[in-house]
Specification:
Order of helices and strands: EEHEEE
Distance between the termini: 41 Å
Number of strands: 5
Helix content: under 10%
Structural class: mainly beta
Number of helices: 1
Radius of gyration: 16 Å
Amino acid sequence: SQGSASNVVVSLPADNTFLPISFTVPANGTYELDLTAYIDALECKPPNTILNKGLYITATTPISCYYEVVSNYVSDIFTLKGKNALGTSFYIPSQTYWRNAQRYPNSFSSFDLVATENNTKVTITPKKDIMGYT
């Protein structure tokens, strides 16, 4: 959080069985929420598939947050952009050196898009071949 405390609610709107989680982040403080128990409801798999998943996070004051995956095989941080992600044109940087996952040996990067409205249409224009698209 920044200069003020923030009351935060984390929910999964597409999952009726998920009970929203509420907590307070102190002013100029941090909070770590372990979502490991919900990993199957959060992670987008199989790849190249439209899924009905996505975190919805609300806060009473501005906060910064990210989703972090830590394991022996893959560790990564996914920036959660909030209002900064609303728009119509984006570039997704990626790397081509370290493999992204053991399951997909030629996978070096990934990205997830979460729509904020029903019937959202997305066009992906890769500069190089990606899974499912040339």
